[in-house]
Amino acid sequence: MIRLRHATKTFPVGGGLTVLRGVDLDIRANEYVGILGASGSGKSTLLYILGLLDRPTTGTLHFRDRDMSTLSDDQLSEIRGQTIGFIFQAFHLIPQLSVIENVELPLFYQHRPPRVRRRRARRCLEQVQLLHRIDHMPPQLSGGECQRTAIARALVTDPDLVLADEPTGNLDSKTGSEIFDIFANLHAQGRTFVVITHDPAIANRIPRIVRISDGRIEEDVSR
Ligand SMILES: Nc1ncnc2c1ncn2[C@@H]1O[C@H](COP(=O)(O)OP(=O)(O)O)[C@@H](O)[C@H]1O
Ligand SMILES: [Mg+2]
Question: Is 203 helix (H, G, I), strand (E, B) or coil?
Fold first, then answer.
């Protein structure tokens, strides 16, 4: 699904801050990959490049055998909207919208009719076991419920690839473990997952672990 070759990333700060230093990474459809590494090692930068939110400074990214460097930002964002779902540590819900309205939002931007939006949003909220909260507002939810809402929102466009950046960083370990139960179920249903985590107990449950150190892949093990 993804083929990243010799990717570097340098941010134009100071004399140039190099954060990725030659990363090769292949991700096949239906894989479940965990990314581990110290804070500042380049994990989020790598995830954003895999998710077409950013581009490598040098090197190439092929997504489904297509060279992404030849596409415009608009073309990238169209591919992103149709095939990739994102989950972040800070849930980024809109507090003035109800749970189901938050989940529907990506479909609203895709100009889907209201009945389609409702139906798909309900189905995704069912998958994260949150149907009983659909009319609640985000400030009324627990942290785990906020993240489950954000997961439903990431799934509502039926993405092939789901990327999560420390999705349990704001949650206690039991709630975090429940979030990863949901990921395991979704992976079993055939989605491709790439998840950044720094929790070793959670990393133990992920079938492939890529360890990043100072902008390089230090280890890539499957079990
Ligand atoms: N947009 C940016 N502009 C400048 N520096 C950045 C930017 N994004 C990340 N960095 C820097 O790149 C380094 C790696 O960041 P990041 O990929 O977020 O690491 P991690 O997710 O592993 O903690 C950090 O030093 C960070 O400050
Ligand atoms: Mg990060």
Answer: helix
The domain total for the chain is: 1
Q: pLDDT by residue (tens digit) across 39-95?
A: 999 999 999 999 999 999 999 999 999 999 999 999 999 999 999 999 999 999 999
Hunting for tokens 């997952």 — which residue is that? 193
Residues with CB in 5 Å of ion ligand 2: 44
Give a yes or no: residue 186 inside a domain. yes
Strands across the sheet containing 216-222: 84-88, 161-165, 192-196, 32-37, 208-213, 216-222
- Which of 23, 44, 50, 214 has most ligand 1 atoms within 8 Å of its beta carbon, as the pocket-test mutant? 44
Q: In which residue are the tokens 């965990």 written?
A: 34
Whether 108 maps to a domain, the answer reads yes
CATH of the domain at 186: 3.40.50.300
Whole-prediction pTM: 0.96
